[in-house]
Amino acid sequence: MKKKISIVICLVLAAVTVFTLTSCLGNGDGDTKTTDGSSTTAAPVVKDLENILANKKLVIGITDFEPMDYQDANGKWIGFDAELAEKVCEKLGVTAEFKLIIWDKNIIELNGKTIDCIWNGFTIDEDRAANVTFSKEYMINRQAIVIHKDNAEKFTDIASLNDASFTAEKGSAGEKAIKANATLKDNKYVGVNGQIDALKEVLSKTSDAAVLDYTMGAYLVNKEGSDFAKLMVLDAEITAKEYYGIGFRKGSDLADKVNGILKELEADGTIKAIAEKYGLADSLVKIK
Question: Which among 35, 104, 144, 184 is least buried, having the fewest CB atoms inside 10 angstroms?
């Protein structure tokens, strides 16, 4: 009798061991590659593509971010990202639907399925990559410090800004850059809802300096007839080079599909043509 009980216990333990190993190993997907080619544990596949095709639309989370996403006089969304998104949607056979979001709530919106992707000069970084699946990088960027021209002699480098008041979009790479900088991290700081709002703070002199995407800052301060012609980009590097990507839900099957379309649009010259229209051709990077 004891022998039979021992056999039963051994069989149960063996079954538990097999189950545990199976759970740890998952469904056999094993490791996968991130957008930068590094190895990481595969996220469960999120099947977004089927729903988007069925709904005939892709809901894209954006902010007012000229020259990436902004409205023309008729209220139509234009800009590099907006036009590229429409070209991708044409290939998918769906309509691009742009939805204004609060930038520091972007991942909450994404996971809450009020949007299908974040496509708005979205900087790829490790913190975000833990919560979203990025497309391949398609454009280079960096964070820039923008000041009022009236302060050009006062503020000449980062050291001279040690007592300056700063502003940036809440949840942005600019805000992160300020907080990470040894000279600036304890400066007076106010977070605003958009990068354009950060520029307005400096224009009105309620803040001494704004940190925002160079793509936007340089474009707006140099644009003919711009409201921000009284501002300037400081010749000082606060961050290294960054790259833009499209953010999808973690593990979304939409990422691979869009990556394939981006490569097609690169090959036929569409991406370059859109970039030239907005003066961004020199910022493009090869889609790997």
Answer: 104
Half-sphere exposure for 185 (CA within 13 Å, toward CB): 5
Whole-angstrom distance, CA of residue 166 vs CA of residue 192: 11
Nearest to 164 by CA among 148, 180, 144: 148
Domains (range + CATH), the chain? 44-140+243-283 (3.40.190.10), 143-233 (3.40.190.10)
Q: What is the 3-state secondary structure (H, E, C) of 237-254?
A: CCCCCEEEEEEEECCECH
Residue-level pLDDT, tens digit, the chain, 288 residues: 444 444 444 444 444 443 343 443 333 344 444 444 444 455 578 899 999 999 999 999 999 999 999 999 999 999 999 999 999 999 999 999 999 999 999 999 999 999 999 999 999 999 999 999 999 999 999 999 999 999 999 999 999 999 999 999 999 999 999 999 999 999 999 999 999 999 999 999 999 999 999 999 999 999 999 999 999 999 999 999 999 999 999 999 999 999 999 999 999 999 999 999 999 999 999 999
DSSP string spanning 136-164?
Answer: ---EEE-EEEEEEGGGTTT--SSGGGTT-
pTM: 0.80
